[in-house]
Amino acid sequence: STKTLKLNDGSQIPIVGLGTWQATDERDAYNAVRAALDAGYRHIDTAAIYKNEVQVGEAIRDSGVPREEIFVTTKLWNAQHHEPEVALDESLQRLGLDYVDLYLMHWPVSLDKSYMKESPLELMKRPDGTRPVETDWTFINTWELMQKLPKNKVRSIGVSNFSVNNLKDLLKAPTTNVVPTINQVELHPLLPQYELVDYCQQNKIEVEAYSPLGSTSAPLLSEPIVIDVAKKNGVQPAHVVLSWIVQRNIIVLPKSVHAERVAANLKTFTLPEEDFDAIGKISQQRGERRINNPNFEPFKTFV
Ligand code: A2P
Asked: What pLDDT, on the 0 to 100 scale, is given for residue 86?
């Protein structure tokens, strides 16, 4: 689908975007972005911590697609919550772009600047085993700074990995005068996030789904209910899952480094009501589960 959604600040965002997390091999990220833009995507999602902003930016420039036609997102890493403008400048430098369309606070948790800026989440421990979480700096402080980012460098701002409680705390804070446009979270039929999506949509915060196919192992593509619905409708399992998310007015960010899958993932269709409902019940039958970062303690602490 090349459909767009309107954000609460008036910007338009394409409902399907290319996810680039774990496209860390230099050529993979570059090729995936080129394939996506060739296939008609106009929305690319990256992050400072994905370590592929240089390749993503190169691919955007080489594509020949005018910059203003592409919606580009990057994210503030946890170790730079005190200096979002410095971090944004560094990202723009790596991307080779003048502005991003969307800048997200990657996690509602500030990590000690001197620690582990480079490491994967699961390795983020001090030598004594504790997590380098800053308890005297909250995401409300970070948001206060993000609200002041210059408009010529970033069009829209939002958050990621925020729970309903995190959002409630943010919205009621006296320093908050900008409602996040977006909350990007893990979301797929095994983690449907019904309550969070209701809360966000009621508050004009659009939801973005990362790992929409269930991440690296893509468990949903071998789920019998998904396969049945795919056969019945003459489509691929990935189409069923991505279409189910889009049908909930949620932005999807499927990741693939294979050109033919990237192209295929842009296609969505309208699920008949009974199939839509069947996909919506998979989590009840199989058990709801977070596939990424299930043991990320700082996240649990702040939920
Ligand atoms: P690959 O990059 O090797 O294609 P997500 O993180 O978006 O949930 O995706 C989960 C995994 O599913 C990705 O690692 C990706 O691997 C794979 N994938 C993406 N699109 C498709 C597809 N259309 N069919 C099969 N596998 C896919």
From this structure: 97
Mutate to test the pocket of ligand 1, among 261, 262, 291, 293 (most ligand atoms within 8 A of CB): 261
DSSP 137: S
Least confident of 47-61, 120-134, 163-177, 235-249: 120-134
pLDDT, position 112: 81
Three-state DSSP state, 53: helix
Contact in structure between 244 and 189 (CB atoms under 8 Å):
yes
Return d(Cα 13, Cα 4) in angstroms, integer: 5
CA 200 to centroid of ligand 1, rounded, Å: 27
CATH number among 2.40.160.40, 3.90.1150.10, 3.20.20.100, 3.40.640.10, domain 4-216+249-259+291-302: 3.20.20.100
* ipTM of this complex: 0.97
Q: Say if CB 60 and CB 98 are below 8 A apart.
A: no
* Tokens 């833009």, residue located: 37
How high does pLDDT run on average in the chain? 92
Own/partner contacts of 124-130, CB < 8 Å, gap of 24 or more, are: 124/298
Under DSSP, the state recorded for 271 is: P
264 Cβ inside 6 Å of ligand 1: yes
6/10 Cα distance (integer angstroms): 6
Q: Where are the domains of the chain?
A: 4-216+249-259+291-302
Give the model confidence (pLDDT) of 18-71 as tens digits.
999 877 677 899 999 999 999 999 999 999 988 899 999 999 999 999 999 999
